[in-house]
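>> received
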Amino acid sequence: MPSEAEPAGKLFLVLAPGDYIVTGACAGAYGAKLTIVRGDGMPEASGFECSSALDRFIRHAGGPITISAVPPTGKPAATGVKVQTNPDPRWSEMEDFGEWSRQQMQPPLPGELSGANRSNTPAVGTLMAKPGQYELRFVCDGSARAELSVSTAAGAEVLAPVQVPCDGQVFTAPVLLPTEGADVRMSPDGGVDGRFAYKLVPTG
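>> returned
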């Protein structure tokens, strides 16, 4: 509960490495700001409305962490924060996928447009690229191979379907977009759950 000296719900604790859910709640105001600071890192802030609690998933490397919920100044309000071990494995799976896709697309290159998909059926990822010459970079994981093709947003094929081995190696191909937008179509082999990461890098 707030006071004049400490008008915010606040936690300072040391957590073991793992996946957690941080919850912020407030009452008496329209909204508040939930802030997470890991060790000496930069604050990670999220605004939320007091009509419902805010849940934030975090993957913590371990060590000290500060969590606070701050209401607007000048108004009497109550705020609170809570942290618990992540109870939903889907949150952890999403974070695993995000980390995998970011790792595959390193290093970032000037002007690139990137995306990622996870599916056991044919999927399409749209990159709003301007007309021009690009290099497509594609990585897949989970199935033995995947079928890959690219067309413009208007439906014109710019890369014919090709079978790409899902062996951790980056597949590259030149792509010329005559009009704006690229639809990257990918399909895992045998209906297996596959992961796909891809980007277009300007070359012209």
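>> The two ends are 59 Å apart (CA to CA).
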